[in-house]
Amino acid sequence: MTNRVCDLLDIEHPILQGGMSWVSDAFLAAAVSNAGGLGTIGAGAMPAELLREEIRKARELTTRPFAVNLIMINPEFEKQVQVLLEEKPPVVTLGAVQSTAVIRLLKEQGIKVLPVVAAVAIARRAEEHGADAIIAEGSEAGGHIGETTTMVLTPLVSRAVEVPVIAAGGIANGAALVAAFVLGAEGVQMGTRFVCAEECTVHEAVKEKFRKSGDRATVVTARSIGYPVRTIRNKLAGEYAEWEKKYLAGECTAMEVENLGLGKLREAMREGNVKSGSLMAGQSVALVERVQPAAAIIGEVIAEAEQVAASLPSRLVLSR
Amino acid sequence: MTNRVCDLLDIEHPILQGGMSWVSDAFLAAAVSNAGGLGTIGAGAMPAELLREEIRKARELTTRPFAVNLIMINPEFEKQVQVLLEEKPPVVTLGAVQSTAVIRLLKEQGIKVLPVVAAVAIARRAEEHGADAIIAEGSEAGGHIGETTTMVLTPLVSRAVEVPVIAAGGIANGAALVAAFVLGAEGVQMGTRFVCAEECTVHEAVKEKFRKSGDRATVVTARSIGYPVRTIRNKLAGEYAEWEKKYLAGECTAMEVENLGLGKLREAMREGNVKSGSLMAGQSVALVERVQPAAAIIGEVIAEAEQVAASLPSRLVLSR
Q1: N or C: which end of chain B has fewer CB atoms below 10 A?
Q2: Which domains does chain A possess?
Q3: Is the pTM of this model over 0.95?
Q4: Which ipTM value was assigned to this complex?
């Protein structure tokens, strides 16, 4: 018995760490990869040369495969792609990228390409364009999101494509991993839980905020301008709501709403401004309880998953 | 091995049919109960005496237990409660009801009371107030919804209360049922799938619309006025968006937005006006493919669940 995600990515456990701008650097990515998962450097709007340094640093810190997450909608994108073609990280995950050309170029360099999608039609198109696997991300995820939840998106994408599906969104423990497999996934991606990895270099105030957040902690902002983003509810989220009202009333532009977020993710994650920064987080933040080494997170998730699966036959009583 | 939901409700399979105003009448409820699930009459804004007739009709059509779903926010509510105290249906599910007094009164008549909740704190309070089980409804559900998805809400509520948890939202097949159990539920509630039961008396155009809907079919309206409702995207949903803009711009009242929906659910469900009516549906509408008798739906979901669970050990390969 084999797992196609492990085989494809040459990893020990089918757990990917989601790429998170200003959060997941080479240090976290290498820790996850060393623990048998797939660590991911979040390129975000990183200058191309800094991205090159991060990739090289990851290579120093681990001999295992790792990924770089690219987001197309940023001015450095083309230069970042150039760096990837030169540095050839083993895997690239693509957020908001629907360019056939980029997928082909990366694949020509032997790079595995995994698009992150939030809708069935886009998953199908990504497969046609050569995606090696699909990361299907439900709306409970943190950061930029779609509208369909993991519970519904996972089975729909799994039946729409032949390549392996990796479920993301709302997954922070072993039970969720098993649920994702039940729904058709062959791997999972977790972002929020890895923010509370010891090796994650975000400000301590962020980890403390994450540990203390409950089920009503997150909120979606910027939905009105067509770019929904899930963050922890704070002063900035309140300001978004006010500016979105103005936007809908025709009193400001979508750009003005967008600009509210300028520099705010860095401010939250690096400087620990949890009140006025952009604290991107998934709903699963309510399930994150403590800070642990990345290896302990992966070990715990796998052990929990095995335990949940083993106890299922005795709990799944469907008839009297 | 027993199932607490089956034992509590005296039913064969731990599948509840969600109460749906203008959709689930005595005829559908009895069909589901006769098939071994728990059918539910959706009382909605039904006049109290009509509700009494529906309960009596259900009793003629089945000897098995069934439920009535009450929604507190309607003018008939107190009279409806009076009818329930007199007619004593075996089970009452409570949407948007947080009244200790009502729960106590119903329980004094031997009625099992199951609140439908969308947040952990409300689940805890409902248990304190004597709830026999909790229906935890994720944001992918149809109609009036909360913000937390089934993937995250189910484990959080399951660990917060001692009584059994029934997962709702996004559940339309056997795989989703197993996923819900993996996440801590001991039963599931399905609404959307039962709209396409043969015994469901909605207009045929509604069933056709449901069968043809995909993953982007639903949309949430009225979020801006604090009462989010999930429906299938149509002309009415577009009008909501326009009026919500006006509301946010201070150009109309919340009441004016709410009034857009007046009579629209009936118009969609009974008259088949799928363009301008309120087509409440969950995201799982994308998983509903055909019209079947209620007994076939329950039989298929149970068989699928058993199959998915049986194949899990061979698919859940977590290490190389």
Answers
A1: N
A2: 14-202 (3.20.20.70)
A3: yes
A4: 0.97
